[in-house]
Amino acid sequence: MNARLNHLGMAARNGQPSLKLAVLTCMDARVDPAAVLGLRPGDAHVIRNAGGRATAEALHALAISQAVLGTREVLVMHHTDCAMGRFSQSDLAQRIMAATNRPFHDELEVFTDDEAAIVEDVGRIRVYASLAHHDHVRGFLYELATDVLKEVTHP
Known about the structure:
155 residues; alpha/beta; Beta-carbonic Anhydrase, Chain A; five-stranded mixed β-sheet; 37% helix; 20% strand
C-alpha cells in the first residue's frame, strides 16, 4: 500500500469515512468543503453538483454512502453567490443550448432563496425512503464574502 493510503488507515482500504459523514455541496470551485469544514482525507464522502441540490442522482449517492459505506450523518452545504441562485432555468437552458447547438429541457434545480433551497434539500433527504439514516441531516449556508458557515434550520 502506498504511503498516502497507509496514512489514511482503514478508511483507505474500505472507503468508509472515519466521521461517518456525507457532505452534499456545490461544485463551485470557490468552495473547498474540506477547508470550510475542517475535514481531512478519509473523514467524509463529499458529493458535489450544481447548487449542492438533493437531486435524484445525489440521493442515490447518499443511499450508497449509507447502505454500503457506513455513513450515518448528512450535511448539506450551499453557498452565497451561487450560479444556481443567480440565473433562472431559462437563462441556464439558453446558455447550454448556445454552447451545444442542441435543445436543452432538463430541470436544473435553480432557486431564488438560499435558505429556502437548503430547507427544501434537507427535507428531501429526510423523507427519501432509500436512506438508512434520516435523523442526522443538517443544512448550512457558507457565506463566501465573510468565510462564515451558518446553520439553517426548518422554520
